[in-house]
Amino acid sequence: METGEKLKEIVKQKYGEIAQQSKETNTSSCCGSGCCSSEVYNIMADEYNNLEGYAPEADLGLGCGLPTQFAKIKKGDTVIDLGSGAGNDCFVARAETGEKGKVIGIDFTPAMIEKARTNADKLGFNNVEFREGDIEKLPVPDNTADVIVSNCVLNLVPDKKKAFEEILRALKSGGHFSISDVVLIGDLPKSLKNAAEMYAGCVAGAIQKDEYLGLLHTIGFKNISVQKEKEIQLPKDILENYLSKEEMNDFKENKLGIFSITVYGEKANKSCCEPGCCD
After folding, report:
1. Is residue 33 within 8 Å of 232, Cβ to Cβ?
2. CATH for the stretch 4-266
3. Residue 208 burial (C-beta neighbours within 10 Å; 0-12, 13-18, 19+)
4. Roughly what angle, to the nearest 10 degrees, separates helices 209-219 and 160-170?
5. Which of 51, 129, 195, 233 has the least C-beta neighbours within 10 A?
6. Is 150:212 a contact under the CB 8 Å cutoff?
7. 243 conformational bin, left if phi > 0, alpha if psi -120 to 50, beta if neither
8. Whole-prediction pTM
9. Tens digits of residue pLDDT in 2-18
10. Is there a contact between 242 and 190 (Cβ–Cβ < 8 Å)?
């Protein structure tokens, strides 16, 4: 496996290329599980069509869930979207938080930031902003957000513990997150783990489901729950790019599970005996 910084460069380069393409181009090589496909990053997307605030021009088909649908956003909330891409989830979040709220999208791919800002300008949104930054070191002060959302991005981050610690830091006391992500049950074959395309496609960077949820508990989040879960089927032609026939048989027999999950968690309220809690 590559170093953390090398993996970040792989992801940045891949998603920089994707930012220059339309959704139609991104999805033209991926017609769903078990069908023809030559890419991985777009086989898990859910449909946003029925969500208020959905902006088709900002949807690149890169997600693996609908975290904003489960995020319990209230009017006036400050919402942060991690890995905001072209702005799709930010615009859905804005519909929930309203004109008195604020939405901050954070992405470390410059081309995505540029695309998102262009989309926000076209829509005339003055309470949605996009910041270039690393999820392992978020460009926001402590206690900024009422709600944090993210769609199929945290699994791309090499240091997931640091990323979740940053989420905890950025949330206000009593704030919460809703994150859609990819997790595993069982181990990926080594050839898949070492494939840069699979990493940028959110699969090889995923960790075990139990480890993922355990990490959230260890860091200190409360009331953790899985809001939605679905199994992901990798298209046969993708597997054939990386696995021999023997490995393919082992892969099926081992019943490796690749799942999209939407996870909810809360930052504990400070008790009134803690310094600064009543400032």
Report:
1. yes
2. 3.40.50.150
3. middle
4. 40
5. 233
6. no
7. beta
8. 0.84
9. 577 777 777 777 777 77
10. no
Residue 201 has a CB neighbour count (10 Å cut-off) of 25
Sequence length of the chain is: 279
Residue 129 CA to its chain's centroid (Å): 18
Distance, C-alpha 264 to centroid of its chain: 13
Tell me the pairing of strands 78-82 and 102-107: parallel
Q: Please state whether 147 falls in left (phi above 0), alpha (psi between -120 and 50) or beta.
A: beta
**C-alpha–C-alpha distance, residues 194 and 10, integer Å:** 12
Cα–Cα distance, 146 to 4 (Å, whole number): 29
Identify the H or E element spanning 194: none
To 5 degrees, how large is the angle CA 27–CA 28–CA 30?
65
Nearest to 206 by CA among 264, 155, 149, 139: 155
User: Do residues 107 and 70 lie in contact, with contact meaning Cβ atoms separated by under 8 Å?
Assistant: no
Q: What is the pLDDT of residue 61?
A: 80
For strands 171-185 and 207-208, give the pairing.
parallel
Q: Report how far residue 69's alpha carbon sits from residue 73's, in angstroms, rounded to the nearest whole number.
A: 9
Q: Where are the beta strands (DSSP E) in the chain?
A: 78-82, 102-107, 128-132, 145-151, 171-185, 207-208, 222-231, 257-266
Report the Cα 202 to chain-centroid distance in Å: 9
Q: Which residues of 111-127 are buried (b: 16+ CB within 10 A; e: fewer)?
A: bbbebbbebbeebebee
* pLDDT, average across residues 250-261: 80
Contact present, 139 and 166 (Cβ < 8 Å): no
